[in-house]
Amino acid sequence: MSTSDRSALPLPDYDELSVGTLEHRVRSLGVPELDQLLHYEHEHADRPMVVQVLTARKRQLDAGAPLSGGNPAAFKPEAAGHGHGGSPVSPATSPEPMSPPPHGTPDQRGKPKGNRTG
């Protein structure tokens, strides 16, 4: 495989994955796949944190750590809740505008300085 061929990498959208996501997704990869990603990473972005994650996972596997289940190629970023979600914001769902008073609370208004006795 040419290391410039992104489509042949064991993780789809590898270049767009955050370090945190990558850390979880590489748990199902074996040493050959990790070596492939390391080689690709060194030739392209060479991100220190990504290299550290991949190298650490290789060390874990060398020490006898098991592969986790799942298929990393089946992951679809859209299915993880990225993009659209949450509650829609519209004028109907927006709160009423409120300017807090310069002193006091909305329920207990402060007195202007000119009206104070003392």
Structure commentary:
The chain is mostly helical and about 120 residues long. It has a domain at about 20-65. It contains 3 helices and no strands. The protein has helices at about 20-25, 30-45, 50-60. Helix 2 (about 30-45) runs antiparallel to helix 3 (about 50-60). It is elongated, with a radius of gyration of 27 Å. Residues about 80 have low confidence and may be disordered.
Quick recap:
This protein is an all-alpha fold and 118 residues long.
Describe the secondary structure blueprint for this structure:
Layout lengths: L18 H7 L5 H13 L4 H15 L56
Helix pairs in contact: 2-3
Keywords for this structure?
118 residues, mainly alpha, 0% strand, elongated
